[in-house]
Amino acid sequence: MRSYPPEPWHLRGEFLAGIFLVPTSELPAYVWAQIPSAARPLALGGRAIVAVAAVRYTPGGVLEYDELLVAVPTIQRRRLALTIPQIWVTSPASRAGGRALWGIPKELMTTRRAAAGRRLRVRHRAEDRAVLAELDGAATIDLPGTWTLPLPTLQRRPGGGVIRSSNSVRGRMHLARTAWTFGSSLSWLGGRRPALSAALTGAAIVFGTRVER
């Protein structure tokens, strides 16, 4: 008997993310290893776009948990998608389902959060207690309307091939400020400052509506 919900997953949540520009030559080998061989990172002037997000999936969805993820926009045969080379969650069910359904290499972590108004402070630790990331951030400017964003993923399939999943998120968008400190498996991002930060609140997420395996 499987320990995770069937696809698609309907989730509710809050996102706080920083967008970094990292020279492609400085992407570590284990990030390249997760990018399908026929795909390439989306780059601006030789710098790959790398998003790091702290997510809390809240009541109202099929699962509730915290997540820390790294996403790299990639292009394969003129199709744009997100490849997730590193990701940690606080839910064993999410870990099992992410790996089995969509080839997302989820690991387990623990999270400590402190929120006051729009400000969020959060610390993520790996299973060995090493600090992965510390975030101090806040939404600053509200953008008008409700935003719907496609978030297709493209992942290596264990044993060969790829898994492409159609996903979407709908919520209220905000510009934000974020200050990150990275360690352990994310030390390759250490000392970098985000080029842009954003928050998404009151979000409805649908993951795995159409999946190509």
Automatic annotation (TrEMBL):
**Top-level taxon in the UniProt lineage:** Bacteria
A Pfam cross-reference name: ADC
User: SUPFAM superfamilies per the record?
Assistant: Acetoacetate decarboxylase-like
Its protein name is Acetoacetate decarboxylase family protein
